[in-house]
């Protein structure tokens, strides 16, 4: 047994005899045993220590804890957006992944932050970002860049390093893929700055093919089915509208503690979590765009009532009129 944690030697009167109170001893297995002074066990019960109350953390402490979690080299949560990217990266690197893991270098990026370099795009990921291999003499490593297409030579700047890949901003398309890229197809003045769309420079047929490929990879990576059991993915059914078709958008804004007069209502800028000001969205339906402008004005007029910002939900719903024909009779048996 462990050392006694409580011992009371004060006597008590019982039937004219002085009887010492039992003492409490803690077993090695954390069970609390009541033992008399003669060593006879009177009874035993389990006692679980009361959990400590969580301490209140200041904003500074929470931010520090968040940075520690981010600095931990942890694999992404299964089926998360980061996991989808990681699988695309691993597929491009092939056998180099096992080699890097064996050497313990899968987190050691050969590219320093703010490094500028030229790469050639190999393919597109499921997120729409381009995947490129870092050029020699760098070790096998993938660079993710938005708004670039397969076969294009681009100049990029690294801003984030992760496991087996780095994220980069697109600085310049040096050699465009003219078979795929046609900027005359772009109908949005915010394209290239807004992070909402990446495919507008592609033909609609190519966009549908890319979306089909996303489903193919999803079955391969996440279904858990053998390849022989995966059904053949048919071609993507196109929409009669390529613009003004989306019936729901969620623009948002944030409030700066220093500059509350600079409120930007819109969608996140490419490769950031900060919104840019967007007055209209050509992807959304005409009804939504018609209501979006007045909603923005109401937000600006009542901006003092917001503390941290908000997301604005706009949805167009169709009200289907009831048919004049009587409903079919349901027979009961």
From TrEMBL:
<feature type="compositionally biased region" description="Polar residues">
    <location>
        <begin position="32"/>
        <end position="49"/>
    </location>
</feature>
<keyword id="KW-0489">Methyltransferase</keyword>
<dbReference type="InterPro" id="IPR010280">
    <property type="entry name" value="U5_MeTrfase_fam"/>
</dbReference>
<feature type="compositionally biased region" description="Basic residues">
    <location>
        <begin position="57"/>
        <end position="72"/>
    </location>
</feature>
<dbReference type="InterPro" id="IPR029063">
    <property type="entry name" value="SAM-dependent_MTases_sf"/>
</dbReference>
<protein>
    <recommendedName>
        <fullName>TRAM domain-containing protein</fullName>
    </recommendedName>
</protein>
<feature type="domain" description="TRAM">
    <location>
        <begin position="110"/>
        <end position="172"/>
    </location>
</feature>
<dbReference type="GO" id="GO:0006396">
    <property type="term" value="P:RNA processing"/>
</dbReference>
<keyword id="KW-0808">Transferase</keyword>
<dbReference type="GO" id="GO:0008173">
    <property type="term" value="F:RNA methyltransferase activity"/>
</dbReference>
<dbReference type="GO" id="GO:0032259">
    <property type="term" value="P:methylation"/>
</dbReference>
<keyword id="KW-0949">S-adenosyl-L-methionine</keyword>
<dbReference type="InterPro" id="IPR002792">
    <property type="entry name" value="TRAM_dom"/>
</dbReference>
<dbReference type="InterPro" id="IPR012340">
    <property type="entry name" value="NA-bd_OB-fold"/>
</dbReference>
<feature type="compositionally biased region" description="Basic and acidic residues">
    <location>
        <begin position="1"/>
        <end position="11"/>
    </location>
</feature>
<comment type="similarity">
    <text>Belongs to the class I-like SAM-binding methyltransferase superfamily. RNA M5U methyltransferase family.</text>
</comment>
<feature type="region of interest" description="Disordered">
    <location>
        <begin position="1"/>
        <end position="80"/>
    </location>
</feature>
